[in-house]
């Protein structure tokens, strides 16, 4: 990548810091402004890889446009046009062309719900609530908030997250929704058992 980015001047910045790529192991995302800039970086990446005896797979390479007023881009790799997509997964997180996190949050909620359900025997066991709560935070919440640093939350997605957390806490406390107990009272009980907790959405 150092060879690819040699004397390259990024046109995108986040928080005042120039950004032109994301990379982890063999997963590389090139980030540019104009389409021509992306094509130049793509060509450089392919050439640099070949110079070091490596190959970039065009079949696994895609393009996503995330810009108002622009919905198309034609990028080639070794004269092969790359597929244009509306979203893609990077390091387990779904990135969407409109910058929203709705799809990713719903996916995380589904995964966390499934993880919670698989641990049903633990939630029904006689171990202390404090122990259950620690397991809940480490085995369920960690799945829910994976990659949350990049989320853009809307009111609806915040509500969905809160609904999941309230539902799980009620199960841990064995409080049914039919019982006349408010969500605020449920959270007060949690604090009484395990002490003050940082609000989940404060992590997001």
UniProtKB/TrEMBL annotation:
What this protein is called in its record is Endonuclease-reverse transcriptase
The yes or no answer to whether the keyword Nuclease is present is yes
GO molecular function, one example? endonuclease activity
Q: Which organism is it from?
A: Elysia marginata
Keywords, ordered alphabetically: Endonuclease, Hydrolase, Nuclease
């Amino acid at each position: 990548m150092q060879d690819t980015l040699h004397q390259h001047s990024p046109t995108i910045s986040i928080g005042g810091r120039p950004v032109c790529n994301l990379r982890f192991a063999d997963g590389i995302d090139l980030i540019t402004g104009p389409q021509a800039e992306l094509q130049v970086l793509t060509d450089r990446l392919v050439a640099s890889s070949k110079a070091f005896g490596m190959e970039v797979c065009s079949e696994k390479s895609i393009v996503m446009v995330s810009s108002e007023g622009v919905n198309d881009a034609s990028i080639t790799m070794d004269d092969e046009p790359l597929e244009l997509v509306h979203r893609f997964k990077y390091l387990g997180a779904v990135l969407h062309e409109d910058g929203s996190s709705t799809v990713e949050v719903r996916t995380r909620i589904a995964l966390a719900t499934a993880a919670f359900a698989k641990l049903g025997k633990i939630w029904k066991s006689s171990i202390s609530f404090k122990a259950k709560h620690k397991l809940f935070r480490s085995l369920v919440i960690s799945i829910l908030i994976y990659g949350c640093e990049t989320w853009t939350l809307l009111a609806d997605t915040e509500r969905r997250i809160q609904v999941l957390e309230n539902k799980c806490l009620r199960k841990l406390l064995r409080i049914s929704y039919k019982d006349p107990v408010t969500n605020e009272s449920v959270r007060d009980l949690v604090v009484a058992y395990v002490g003050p907790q940082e609000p989940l959405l404060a992590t997001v």
